[in-house]
């Protein structure tokens, strides 16, 4: 009913504006339509104020509603009105929590006493907040860029014996996408169970003919929140940004790379694509797998948790601890933001961040400032050229306050930097799908792996240092000398930081 009410208000708003600006009506009628338009906007602003958002966020949406007639109202309904209390995915969140309680049977309290202080600080928080648990019998391997990820992925897919479960935000029907689809169909014809989940908006370029061909070959294919179900129930703006591949329950992949030739660095309009993915073996694979299974159940209603071959963990000799964490509308609100904040706050020596979109909330900015004041070495790496005007200039709008407190900022110049990596004190790291922006914190379904004492952390450090050689350090003096035009772009883009 609420959706119908909002749809009718939208029609009234559009009709009122048209009557005032374009219709050949008498003055008194135009005045009435103008009053109707004003009443609808004031009613929306009053409803917005009652949501008790931050003052900054509330003022942003008031500006949008007032200064962008009709467009601002529609943008608010289907982008700004996020239902932060979680009504939209209440059933999924409840079901997921029940499943996690059932599958994570913890027999004993974890012992973090052997960890150094900064790791123990974060591990206790993660244990108490996340529904998932830390895994020790796990091995991780870093895959740098598409040149390492896709050959390894194809090889492992071809080795599958029992099942393949694959999930992507973007999956294209280009040359790379078709190569992987051919492997999936080949394995399905061999009797391997193949389930394929893609985001309904991110994978719009995935052709229906390819989907039909996969289904004909025996691949079970579903879209997560497809467009035809999204607009009027307000789920259009909530996207599944996760990238997960599970093979026979013993191999898992996650990270920043989607499926498309641009992720191999072969799109001439984008150029070189710098990204980081990860292969997981052992116990943590089933934690990652459970996240896929919950998304799969939500989309098509098939509950696979009763089958032991989908849930039984495989333990191997590990080289550290791994904690896989899901975030999004199906979990505690803003949980990934809280994880990033805690990770930063627990640091004793250094914090290295690499992210394509740096639009931090106030808590994370405060944590970075305090870390600098404690003497922690803070480095942030972002791409020189971003793939969007608003994200690029909104990111730069945060540089002044960061530079003032001593943060080192590096601008990656070789191509587009898309990896999402945080390294703390040289022995703890986060790698996954979540950017450091409001969309990843509040709108997108994400998944990250937090690593403790793994050899992969050293590999991430080595790669970060290599990336610094392809970057230029942003000098405080030079940056402050930028022109009025650049500052104006930054200030304008920052107005939209609450929805980026």
UniProtKB/TrEMBL annotation:
Ranges that cross the membrane: 7-25, 31-50, 59-78
Enzyme Commission number(s): 2.7.8.-
Cell membrane: present as a keyword of the record?
A: yes
* Positions of the catalytic residues: 241, 243, 248, 418, 420, 425
Top-rank taxon of the source lineage equals Bacteria
Q: Where in the cell is it found?
A: Cell membrane
Entry-linked InterPro entries: Cardiolipin_synth_Firmi, Cardiolipin_synthase, CLS_N, PLD-like_dom, PLipase_D/transphosphatidylase
Family the UniProt entry places it in? Belongs to the phospholipase D family. Cardiolipin synthase subfamily.
User: Any idea what job this protein has?
Assistant: Catalyzes the reversible phosphatidyl group transfer from one phosphatidylglycerol molecule to another to form cardiolipin (CL) (diphosphatidylglycerol) and glycerol.
Which protein is depicted? Cardiolipin synthase
What is the organism field in this record?
Fictibacillus iocasae
Per the UniProt record, the lineage of the source organism begins with: Bacteria, Bacillati, Bacillota, Bacilli, Bacillales
């Amino acid at each position: 009913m609420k959706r119908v009410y909002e749809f009718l208000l939208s029609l009234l708003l559009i009709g009122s504006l048209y009557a005032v600006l374009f219709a050949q009506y008498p003055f008194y009628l135009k005045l009435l339509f103008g009053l109707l338009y004003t009443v609808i906007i004031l009613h929306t602003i009053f409803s917005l104020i009652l949501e008790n958002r931050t003052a900054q966020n509330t003022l942003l949406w008031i500006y949008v509603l007032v200064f962008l007639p009709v467009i601002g109202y529609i943008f608010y309904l289907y982008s700004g009105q996020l239902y932060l209390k979680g009504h939209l995915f209440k059933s999924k969140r409840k079901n997921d929590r029940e499943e996690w309680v059932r599958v994570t049977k913890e027999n004993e309290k974890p012992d973090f006493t052997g960890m150094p202080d900064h790791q123990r600080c974060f591990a206790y928080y993660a244990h108490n907040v996340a529904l998932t648990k830390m895994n020790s019998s796990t091995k991780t391997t870093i895959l740098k860029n598409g040149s390492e990820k896709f050959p390894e992925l194809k090889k492992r897919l071809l080795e599958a014996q029992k099942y393949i479960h694959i999930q992507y935000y973007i999956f294209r029907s280009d040359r790379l996408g078709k190569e992987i689809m051919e492997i999936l169909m080949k394995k399905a014809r061999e009797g391997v169970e193949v389930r394929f989940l893609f985001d309904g908006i991110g994978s719009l370029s995935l052709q229906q003919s390819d989907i039909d061909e996969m289904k004909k070959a025996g691949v079970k294919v579903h879209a997560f929140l497809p467009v035809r179900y999204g607009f009027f129930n307000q789920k259009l703006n909530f996207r599944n940004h996760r990238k997960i591949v599970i093979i026979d329950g013993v191999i898992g992949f996650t990270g920043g790379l989607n499926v498309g030739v641009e992720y191999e660095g072969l799109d001439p309009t984008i150029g070189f694509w710098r990204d980081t993915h990860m292969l997981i073996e052992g116990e943590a694979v089933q934690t990652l797998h459970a996240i896929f299974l919950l998304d799969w159940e939500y989309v098509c209603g098939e509950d696979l948790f009763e089958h032991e071959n989908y849930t039984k963990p495989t333990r191997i000799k590990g080289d550290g601890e791994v904690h896989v964490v899901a975030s999004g509308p199906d979990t505690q609100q803003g949980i990934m933001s809280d994880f990033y904040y805690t990770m930063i706050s627990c640091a004793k020596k250094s914090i290295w961040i690499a992210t394509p979109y740096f639009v931090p909330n106030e808590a994370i900015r405060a944590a970075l400032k305090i870390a600098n004041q404690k003497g922690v070495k803070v480095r942030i790496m972002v791409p020189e050229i971003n793939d969007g005007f608003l994200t690029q200039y909104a990111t730069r709008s945060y540089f002044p306050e960061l530079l003032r407190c001593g943060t080192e900022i590096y601008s990656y110049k070789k191509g587009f930097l898309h990896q999402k990596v945080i390294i703390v004190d040289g022995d703890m790291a986060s790698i996954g799908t979540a950017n450091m922006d409001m969309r990843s914190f509040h709108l997108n379904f994400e998944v990250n792996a937090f690593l403790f004492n793994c050899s992969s952390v050293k590999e991430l450090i080595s790669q970060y240092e290599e990336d610094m050689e392809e970057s230029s350090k942003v000098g405080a003096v030079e940056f402050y000398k930028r022109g009025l035009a650049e500052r104006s772009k930054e200030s304008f883009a920052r107005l939209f930081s609450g929805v980026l």
